[in-house]
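The authors assume throughout that readers already know how a fold can be written as discrete tokens. For illustration, here is how one protein appears when written out as sequence plus structure tokens.
>
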Amino acid sequence: MNWDRIEGNWKQLTGKAKEQWGKLTDDDIDVIAGKRDQLAGKIQERYGVAKDEADKQITKWENAADDSWLKAHPHRD
């Protein structure tokens, strides 16, 4: 899935992001708002990794993303 689709469907994908990066808080997820650079920054901050490592993790996650991730999931608001 390309990043434009991820960004456009961010609310549906936040659960998958939190599964991948469990140290991200709800506030982090809100701040990221689907922006790749914001996600990289938060991964760096929470996990103490370099930018290139954060980018590698995001690329791997992005490549794994598929339409099954967009199926309706119950929201816990």
User: Anything to note?
Assistant: The domain at 3-70 is CATH 1.10.1470.10 (Protein Yjbj; Chain: A;). The chain has one domain: 3-70. Residues 1 and 66 are 6 Å apart (CA to CA). The first helix runs from residue 3 to 8.
